[in-house]
Amino acid sequence: MTRLLIVDDDALVRAGLTMILESAEDLEVVGEASDGSQAVAAVQRHRPDVVLMDIRMPIMDGLAATSAVLQLADPPKVLVLTTFDLDDYVFRALQAGATGFLLKDTPPKDLINAIRVVAAGDAMLSPPVTRRLIEHFADDHRDESERTAKGKLGALTERESEVFFEVGRGLSNADIGRALYMSEATVKTHVSRLLVKLQAGNRVQLAILAHEAGLYRA
Q: Which CATH superfamily hosts domain 2-124?
C-alpha cells in the first residue's frame, strides 16, 4: 500500500484527488494539508510515501514546502501539481529534488499510474510537457549553465555518458537497455553511479543537467 499526502489550498481539489486516488486498491490517502507551511508537520505526522504538492499556495508556496520536506530524514517522494505547464516554480521545485510534476487536469488513470511509478523509485519524465519545461527554463543563463554542466560530465566513462544521454531523453531503464543492448539491471547500476558522480538526487535532476549541457540541441 502506497501512503499519500495531499498538499493543496483548495478543499475541492483535495477532495477530488482523494476520491480518484482511493479508487485504486494499492493507494491510500493518509493525510491532507491546506498550505505549504503545514506540509512538514503533516509529513512527520503521517509518514507518507508520496506527497502531491500544489505549487501556488498562500503563506508558503509549493517550492519552499518541497525544499523543507526534502530536508527531512528519510523524506517522501514529492510530485508537484500545477495548473499549467511552463511554470518557473515547477522547474525550481524539480531542481530542489522533486521527483516530477503533473498537471492538475491529468486523467485519473494517468495520475494513478504516475504515483505508482514514483513510489517504485522512478521519476516522472515521460510526459512531453516535462521535457518542454526543462528545455524552456534551461535557456536562462544558458552559457554559464552549459559550461558548468559540461564540466561535471567530464568525469563520466563512455558507457556512463551513453546511459546519461538516454536518461535525459526520458527513457526508462528497460528502454535504455534495449537501445544500448544492456540488461535492465546493468542500466540500473549505471544510473546509480551517475546519481553519485553527478551529485543528483534523482533522474529528473539528471535530465535537467543533460539539457543544460546542450546535449539535445540541433
A: Response regulator (3.40.50.2300)
